[in-house]
Automatic annotation (TrEMBL), chain A:
It comes from Glycomyces luteolus. This is Uncharacterized protein.
TrEMBL record, chain B:
InterPro entries: AB_hydrolase_fold (IPR029058), DUF1023 (IPR010427). This is Alpha/beta hydrolase. GO terms for molecular function: hydrolase activity. Residues 318-345 form a coiled coil. The keyword Coiled coil applies. It holds the Pfam family Abhydrolase_8. Residues 377-543 form the DUF1023 domain. SUPFAM superfamilies: alpha/beta-Hydrolases (SSF53474). Keywords: Coiled coil, Hydrolase. The keyword Coiled coil applies.
Length: 123, 595
């Protein structure tokens, strides 16, 4: 990679990192969905029993899935996409955006939402 | 807010709640495998400096490490400590009250009583059939047995006439029993609602002020990540502050898990830099609280000294005849009183060289631990003789009317006596005795000690204190809660309204405990004990003030004998004197699990 501050890079190894990051992102999303479902199933009867716990538990499960687990997975996805670009061409962290990923690595990872980011009107 | 009915509580599937807790625990382990993989396979593997080396590469590795760190903290703080622990705690609490209902509801039905009224204030009343049975002189067998009359088997025979003449007793007895069941039911539901609301609060508060996630790679990342890192350094302090201020919603057990999850340096920094967030907090281990509280005590004495000097200076410039002077003088006296009280407490628990003092008593002598103090109202002091976190037996004394910081020496003397008695009763065991003046005690017998508000005001704090002892102590510690005088009322209110962690409850010289039955206390009735000596005027307290005397026959539980002091002594306060070795030895046996 031709970048000012890059001294060494093995693109294949970076791409393997990308795959792991995407894989964990996907598993985290799937597992968060499963725990949120279990949570909601237990919260249901508690809500029917008019406990204070029932609604709070359901909200906690949704919050965990939507904010924390999703947030973690999303950060991994973002880092993975950045690295996917790095494996193809130099890009500074501050210059990176989803459109860069689409233009450089979108064809390699077509299943990702950001693969078509450069076609969006806001790009 | 909990709107749980007794029928709902009876039918709740506590096993499902607990299973969900297990599911969350397993989920946490599953997720930790992801962060482990990030570290080993990405940061130290494919993305190591060997394959990817530059300032940017270092930054990316840091980003992945930060992301993993954040997720691990989230899993610990939220998924495990908040969600899973809340589920386990509330399942245990619901199940405990369910078991009470399983015992109570059949008794209500067997006696032909009915549960009526709104869910917040259930009534247990005589059914129409029972009314009719009593009115037609055909009372049920259980009622005849309770009143000591034979059940009539014909009209106008001798037994019927006896029943007729005992009619008032029949009604009174039936209503009295219904009243006891009502107390019991209300206590069960009060504790269940309390546990429900606390669990909901723990989960809701979790979402209120969540920690920030690391920023995403992209524009302004460099600035954002600096802000994030700064936030991380303040994160523990923010959590500690919220816990100390009571806005975190965390139970003492959750506080304990949070504390144990901090690094040694984080814990030390909190003790040194913010002792006010450590000393008073239930769920933080005793040693740490003691260290923090001793620092706070030093600071408060110094602060009061400075304020006194400033006030004295100000007084010199005032007209001694003026109202302003009078007010300033009164404030000065208040400050001096507070300083003297705190200095007295410090002298009691500290050696001349500043190290923690040892209490009087049999060898091995036990050190004092300061678990809390304050000068507000009549003052607060929570002092343990021996370390409750390592003890086999912990007895917590709740003192009563007129207890205050000024007279803390006498209160600690009683705890010291109880500790000595326990050590003599169980020399092979480790024991600790806590003097818990963690509430604003009534200052007067009339009218303050006649009011329930002091007990109600103390209830939640006593609940949290006992649960904190459970969280920081050994798994099988034998916990006893001993009240004296109005302290028994405090314990009764806390036990029946909020629930306390206690294996045994002991009422010494009680004016009533806010309920008419030992069954309402949430502790095995066989482990509820009462004693009042024969010359103690407290036995003249009328039932309408704080409920039936727990030393009375109908209350349930056990009673034990206490000797009187001299006839002209204040026999309400002789229970810890040498004239009452019988009572003291029994109390020591209870507190050390030998009764």
């Amino acid at each position: 990679m031709a970048g000012a501050d890059v001294f060494a890079m093995d693109p294949d190894e970076v791409r393997k990192s990308v795959e792991i990051l995407f894989e964990i992102e996907s598993e985290v999303d799937e597992q968060a969905s499963a725990i949120a479902t279990s949570n909601a199933e237990t919260a249901g009867p508690l809500k029917e029993a008019e406990t204070a716990l029932g609604p709070a538990l359901e909200a906690a499960g949704e919050w965990w899935q939507g904010e924390r687990a999703f947030g973690f997975g999303s950060l991994l996805g973002n880092t993975g996409e950045y690295l996917a670009v790095c494996a193809e061409e130099a890009v500074e962290v501050d210059d990176y955006n989803a459109g860069t990923f689409a233009s450089v690595a979108g064809d390699l990872y077509p299943e990702r939402a950001n693969a078509n980011a450069d076609a969006r009107p806001d790009w | 807010m909990s709107e749980l009915t007794w029928e709902h509580l009876r039918d709740l599937d506590c096993g499902a709640i607990r299973t969900l807790g297990d599911t969350w625990k397993a989920y946490v382990e599953q997720q930790l495998a992801h962060t482990e993989r990030l570290r080993t396979e990405v940061i130290e593997g494919h993305l190591s400096a060997e394959h990817f080396e530059s300032d940017t590469a270092t930054q990316v590795r840091e980003q992945i490490g930060m992301t993993a760190d954040r997720y691990e903290d989230d899993l610990s703080d939220y998924a495990s400590t908040r969600i899973a622990t809340t589920l386990f705690e509330v399942a245990d609490a619901f199940e405990k009250e369910q078991n009470e209902l399983k015992e109570l509801v059949p008794l209500i039905e067997q006696h032909d009583f009915e549960i009526e009224g709104p869910r917040s204030e259930y009534d247990v009343n005589l059914s129409g059939d029972l009314h009719q049975a009593i009115l037609t002189l055909n009372p049920p067998q259980w009622l005849c047995d309770m009143c000591g009359v034979q059940k009539p088997d014909g009209f106008w025979d001798l037994d019927t006439i006896k029943v007729l003449f005992n009619g008032v007793d029949l009604y009174g007895t039936a209503i009295g029993l219904a009243g006891q069941y009502q107390d019991w039911l209300r206590a069960v539901m009060s504790r269940a609602h309390d546990a429900d609301d606390e669990a909901a609060a723990a989960l809701s508060e979790m979402r209120e002020n969540p920690t920030e996630l690391p920023p995403r790679l992209g524009a302004t990342y460099d600035d954002l990540v600096d802000d994030y890192k700064e936030g991380v350094t303040e994160e523990v302090a923010g959590e500690a502050k919220a816990i100390a201020e009571g806005t975190s919603g965390m139970s003492p057990e959750q506080v304990n898990q949070w504390w144990e999850g901090l690094s040694e340096s984080e814990r030390q920094a909190l003790i040194e830099e913010h002792p006010e967030w450590v000393g008073p907090v239930d769920g933080i281990p005793t040693e740490s609280r003691d260290t923090a509280n001793r620092t706070l005590l030093d600071n408060d004495i110094d602060r009061l000294g400075t304020q006194i000097a400033a006030k004295e200076q100000a007084l010199q410039g005032m007209d001694p005849e003026s109202e302003e002077y009078e007010q300033a003088k009164e404030e000065l006296d208040g400050l001096k009183g507070d300083r003297d009280d705190l200095a007295n407490l410090q002298d009691r628990i500290t050696n001349d060289d500043g190290t923690p003092a040892l209490a009087e008593g049999p060898e091995p002598k036990q050190p004092y631990y300061l678990l809390g103090f304050g000068t507000q109202d009549s003052g607060r002091a929570i002092v343990s003789v021996g370390n409750p976190d390592t003890a086999d037996n912990v007895n917590t004394l709740v003192p009563g009317t007129t207890s205050n910081l000024t007279d803390v020496d006498g209160l600690i003397n009683r705890a010291e006596t109880m500790q000595s008695d326990a050590q003599l009763a169980a020399p092979g065991a480790s024991n600790a005795t806590v003097m818990w003046l963690g509430y604003d005690a009534p200052d007067t017998i009339v009218p303050e000690a006649m009011q329930e508000r002091w007990a109600d005001g103390a209830s939640n704090d006593l609940e949290r204190f006992t649960k904190g002892l459970d969280a920081t102590g050994q798994p099988n510690t034998n916990h006893t809660l001993t009240g004296h005088s109005y302290g028994t009322t405090v314990i009764g209110h806390a036990a029946s309204q909020d629930g306390v962690n206690a294996d045994n409850i002991v009422f010494v010289a009680s004016p009533g405990v806010g309920t008419d039955t030992a069954s309402a206390l949430g502790v095995d009735e066989d482990n509820v004990w009462s004693t009042t000596n024969s010359l103690d005027p407290i036995q003249l307290s009328p039932d309408f003030l704080h409920g039936a005397n727990p030393a009375g026959e109908d209350f349930g539980g056990n009673t034990f004998h206490s000797d009187t002091g001299a006839w002209n002594a204040n026999n309400h306060s002789t229970y810890w004197d040498d004239t009452n070795m019988a009572g003291r030895e029994t109390l020591a046996d209870i507190a050390t699990g030998q009764r």
